[in-house]
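Annotated sample (chain length 197).
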Amino acid sequence: KLTIEGPIVKEKSSFILGGRTTYSNWLLGVIPDKSYKNSRASFYDLNLNVNHTINPRNNLYLTAYASSDQFRLNSDTLYKYSNRNINIKWKHNFSNKLYGTITAGFDQYKYEVSSEKNPVNAFQLAFDISQASVRADFNYAPGNKHNFNFGFNSIYYKLHPGSYTPQSDQSLVTRDVLPAEQAVESALYIGDQYELT
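Output written by the structure step:
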């Protein structure tokens, strides 16, 4: 694994970038048993965080993540998973009593199973879900004993429930793709906290 961090603009912007991967393929390759020697396993993930101060009242934050895992058993079926995520947040101080944050983001998860060992039966089975979101949170403190917060969020989902497709031109697998589905989920909230004593 490796992590790098440092400034982008002196006293205004900074970043942290980290990544990990594995040497499992090398380990599997030195195992004497052929059923394991012909197998494969690997993964990686990456993280990025960037902070930027526009001015004393405004800050921006960027966060991103990506990962991929895959393994194959004895040169046959390949299993793959992946995740992607990115979001950006803006924090604004309206006054000493009121501040707010607005966040927008995108996430995606994919899953695949495939086999090419027998060209006649070569197939790919896949599924994925993604979502885009926006969220706003505000906090107002009119006094030391009174705290008022409110906001909203909305998420748009898109789902591909499943597809079963031929993996090569020689494959006799019948293509079957389920129709995509989508949904929107939204919410408002409000809260008031008062310290009596």
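Annotation: DSSP finds two helices and ten strands in the chain.
Annotation: The longest strand covers residues 123-143.
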